[in-house]
What we know:
By secondary structure, the protein is α/β, with parallel strands linked by helices. It contains 16 helices and 16 strands.
Amino acid sequence: MASAKRPNFLLIVADDLGFSDIGPFGGEINTPNLDKLAKDSILFTDFHAAAACSPSRAMIMTGTDHHIAGLGNLIEWTNISGQNDPNGTMSTSVQRGMPGYEGYLNERVVALPELLRDAGYHTLMSGKWHLGLTPERSPKSRGFERSFAHLPACSNHYAYEPQLQGTDQIPDFMTMSFIALHSEDGKYVKKLPEGWYSSHGYGDKMLQYLKDWKEAGDDRPFFGYLPFTAPHWPLQAPQEYIKKYRGVYDEGPEALRQKRLQRLKDLGMVPQDVEPHPVVADEVKEWDDLSDVERANSCRAMECFAGMVEAIDVNVGKITEYLEEIGELDNTFVCFLSDNGAEGAAYEAYPIVQSNMLQHLQKYYNNHIDNLGNGDSFIWYGPRWAQAATAPSRLYKAYTTEGGVRVPYMMKPPAAFGGKVPGGSITHQFATVMDLAPTILDMAGVTHPAPTYQGREIVPMRGKSMVPYLSQQAETIHEKDFINGWETCGRAACRRGDWKIVFIPKPKGPERWQLYNLATDPGEVHDLAEQEPGKLKELLKLWDIYVLETGVVPLSPDLGNWMAAMEEQMPENAWIEYEYWKDGARDDPEKFTKVIPRFQRHVSAI
């Protein structure tokens, strides 16, 4: 008897998408392809990522914590303290050069595509990598046979680059946020295709790779990774999508927030009596205090965002329709998620942006309302729109509150693993991005090789396979009193079951540990630290264990075994291997690639 055909895998990631932005999670944005996919998927309401992008991607690729895998913090934030903490009170210097903060997938982990490739899978990637800038750190070096990879954190979605005049320089904040640096199969791409737009480019490339696989008669199953760079700022999309949303957001972010909340209640995704966390946006004006022009520009920014999300959906449809056409969709595990909560930073309030970036934007970009969304515009949408998308949760990206780490996730199992949990159902099971790799390996029949891989020591996965839950052999994915920790740029959290402690520095938090019962207070509104000192103490002990197990380098004494930075760690803007933004760097990458100093710290107990 022939063995059953192994499933394919398609893992789709959006960048800075909010919890309620897409149709299946209550959004008004037009997402017909995701809506269709949702009908055959399980929708998760308690699924979690890290609070920011590359940490989440590291966990997706390895099944373990990002502090172990090499992305303890975004390397861009470790590199320049002012990007991590605009107030200048929490330097990242102590993290520089430390184990787990390399800024790329390190040698302590084996990547999911490496294991699938070794097990006879055809491994494909198109989109954002953000796990290393050099050929040695590229997707090709970590198991992808075909890859078209956006290497940095973000860039212009149209690959527009202004031609500087005289002695003008790119502002520090923008150096790593406008150049669309890509590699294909480990080699830097010299020129992107004409008419480039990021989401269309990644969808087209993944479609090409799949067609090549099919036409070659390759009988191996495939693993496809499709991580978009949208809807990360700068907010840019084809006008054909943006114009569909004219007038949709004219009532402002609070009206949108209330509509989204009601829709989430109607869908059964949040309790009817949920108390949403109040909007926290002291650094920007109230909606009613904006001028007519300011309100119009703000609405247009949200329209651009919506256009970006619709463009993602169009490209998801390209892939799922092709798989359906060739008879592979039923046998393909398809999941869709965001890498963190919506991006709510008001960058115009950052000193590093105020210093010279705003003047640079005025000189080299056209942010007139009629041009917003085009390649030579450069905008973001700020904390009020972001919190319309994260409600009822507290705050947004970069914070370890639920608004920063709870993300939309839906999963269509392959035929052999489906049926027990009906498609279109909603589950309130806790799960994290670390569970993806164990689940995929389990479905593929592949065993993780820890403690060694190809002669080097590696760590085991911390995530859990969802297969026992899908097959109804287990009632839950994680044990009832599971323990999970989070830390990104000095913001921290630890959760055990329904109880969660959170540490948020000023000004967005009180800069002390707070305690919440998420079963009765999912919005993290009512701090129970004083009423439940025993529970707080219990969770603080678990936090200390998490720090030891994962190698967190605390940025505050309140977060554990804090150390002062060494003199060698003090230089700013010196901790990225390939300084691709410098003049001449893309013509001679080796000349602008350097060895970063590495240090060791030894902690035996707290």
